[in-house]
């Protein structure tokens, strides 16, 4: 999959005039140790696809060249191929490449170097704009910067609005000169890693020290005023391969204090400051839900309700948007149709358009995907349902009026209102009666091609497409709608009826068409798909989840039989890798364990959740940073923080089932990892901790590209370390993260879509966990409350 992730240039200020010499005949670039000039460009031959490059709007490798397709009427700077390079003052550099366009263009393409927060131009290379033809033109320039630029951007870009569509391609791009590129050294913060939000007074308080020491190291806990409060000795844990370093753990659990601004000191290192407080997680319980409101499609986001986040409604049929009130099905002839064919299917389309407005945008893109929406809305509903079933839950914390959303005050718990926004969209994604695959759900509605960053939802000019229904999406609809039906029943019986009817129809449709799979991506066929694939060719787990939800809502014998007959009912639903959008049996199992029913083997089901949690506790015990995540080979997945969170939800559910404090403690230790006790000393939650992720990949929380836009709202979880980032095509991670130890495969950079995106299905478990931890805050840990 190839995705564009860099900004469409808007600011054109030509301010910086720093170049001393351009086109200096005879200037000699610096040489490397072996005598060859130092090459600064990664993958200038495009032999490795688009690795190292950023290209938009529609990028691909054609005939071995890196190309972008520029539609007619594209605005200035809206199409480009770029790469970040370091420049050193006083060094002489030589740039060479070949460039072509098909068909020939007027003087419409320019080669520039730009840098700085506002990307002012440093230099045009060469001084003239290029009139390119299908015959490759050699481009060459020599220059000497007067100032250092850690990251300048080389861009071959469209200059002015073009009348006719064209394809721009470059190849053999070389920039020689300067010093050998420095090896990437991650910013790992203090060697003493703590939960930067803090610790609960009665909870575990463990930190991790990175050190070369071989003997136990003394530590001290200091108050904000520097006075020592406590001290002790750390425990050696050896080399942690997920961090690539030797570590010790420090346990302050016995310290009976509360307050603000504590620091831990050991081995010459001082930790980030942290609090010890009972109400630590209350604000996160609320903040983690803001992202759903500000990610809503089809409604203006009011700045009064979400200060700093006000924006126009996206995809309500107002130009330049081309959706979502009347979206056509994928047209025949689209590249994506070939994926169906290649994978044994038929081209698919439909005649009429559909209103699929509303719902949440999935992530930092403008796509809306039923499978990912399904798991996200389900986990939010699980959070709400937990407030009804868990003995220690604060029943009022999720009540009406607890969130800042338009529906607050309508007499319905706000979290259910937020869920309804997505559920109503999912109902719109159900194929109407009379059409092919009636009753199933379209897999997704998304842009035809990837867009650049930044871009507010209302500014997205791409055509929208409805994709072929999939059995997975259909079962997500069945499961989420069935769950919604039982939760909405006390508040709106008509809506509950509508949900249940849709769930039944979807369930039947999925059984009639059990193997209509969303196709896997293939960049050779569809290089710029405009949306994520969410491909899945095993939907037995989705079927189990849907059956479980229908059973819990209706108690009917037929679905009970389906639950009991599913291989997933007895299989291990809690793998080390964690459940996920493509692996959802756990959702059914968790609900069968926690929601009251007459299921004959309910005790066994409850025990299976506890056993799953025990597995995660064992994994956690082996991890010196406390994450309950030990995937095969220490290969951290795309969105590893989601795996950590989902595993924590299982552990927390074991606490709800047993009241055993070991599980509650384990959840808090896992939260420590997400909030800073990790190899990068990174709090992955925006607004929480001294070193928080706040430059996540998003088209509209794009503050780091456009200061007039906000960063992600407080309480937004970054996807986190991804061991496959360097080979995913991620233009920022590609050159930097090759061979990284798992925990270090992360960049808080808006361009790094494989490590630093944000999604509804990642924030939903964060929200669930925040509620759980906030309930623990309140200290309601009465074991008697756990008797059924
Ligand atoms: O979360 C998804 C991850 O599990 C997949 O490996 C990855 C590649 O298919 O896609 C992730 O989902 C992205 C989706 O395709 C498009 N919207 C943003 C999602 C988060 O990166």
TrEMBL record:
<feature type="signal peptide">
    <location>
        <begin position="1"/>
        <end position="32"/>
    </location>
</feature>
<keyword id="KW-0378">Hydrolase</keyword>
<feature type="active site">
    <location>
        <position position="748"/>
    </location>
</feature>
<comment type="similarity">
    <text>Belongs to the glycosyl hydrolase 9 (cellulase E) family.</text>
</comment>
<dbReference type="InterPro" id="IPR013783">
    <property type="entry name" value="Ig-like_fold"/>
</dbReference>
<protein>
    <recommendedName>
        <fullName>Endoglucanase</fullName>
        <ecNumber>3.2.1.4</ecNumber>
    </recommendedName>
</protein>
<dbReference type="InterPro" id="IPR004197">
    <property type="entry name" value="Cellulase_Ig-like"/>
</dbReference>
<dbReference type="InterPro" id="IPR012341">
    <property type="entry name" value="6hp_glycosidase-like_sf"/>
</dbReference>
<dbReference type="Pfam" id="PF00759">
    <property type="entry name" value="Glyco_hydro_9"/>
</dbReference>
<dbReference type="Pfam" id="PF02018">
    <property type="entry name" value="CBM_4_9"/>
</dbReference>
<dbReference type="InterPro" id="IPR008979">
    <property type="entry name" value="Galactose-bd-like_sf"/>
</dbReference>
<feature type="region of interest" description="Disordered">
    <location>
        <begin position="696"/>
        <end position="730"/>
    </location>
</feature>
<keyword id="KW-0732">Signal</keyword>
<feature type="domain" description="Cellulase Ig-like">
    <location>
        <begin position="188"/>
        <end position="271"/>
    </location>
</feature>
<feature type="domain" description="Glycoside hydrolase family 9">
    <location>
        <begin position="281"/>
        <end position="769"/>
    </location>
</feature>
<keyword id="KW-0326">Glycosidase</keyword>
<dbReference type="InterPro" id="IPR008928">
    <property type="entry name" value="6-hairpin_glycosidase_sf"/>
</dbReference>
<dbReference type="InterPro" id="IPR033126">
    <property type="entry name" value="Glyco_hydro_9_Asp/Glu_AS"/>
</dbReference>
<feature type="active site">
    <location>
        <position position="757"/>
    </location>
</feature>
<keyword id="KW-0624">Polysaccharide degradation</keyword>
<dbReference type="GO" id="GO:0016787">
    <property type="term" value="F:hydrolase activity"/>
</dbReference>
<feature type="domain" description="CBM-cenC">
    <location>
        <begin position="39"/>
        <end position="157"/>
    </location>
</feature>
<dbReference type="InterPro" id="IPR001701">
    <property type="entry name" value="Glyco_hydro_9"/>
</dbReference>
<keyword id="KW-0119">Carbohydrate metabolism</keyword>
<keyword id="KW-0136">Cellulose degradation</keyword>
<dbReference type="InterPro" id="IPR003305">
    <property type="entry name" value="CenC_carb-bd"/>
</dbReference>
<dbReference type="Pfam" id="PF02927">
    <property type="entry name" value="CelD_N"/>
</dbReference>
<dbReference type="InterPro" id="IPR014756">
    <property type="entry name" value="Ig_E-set"/>
</dbReference>
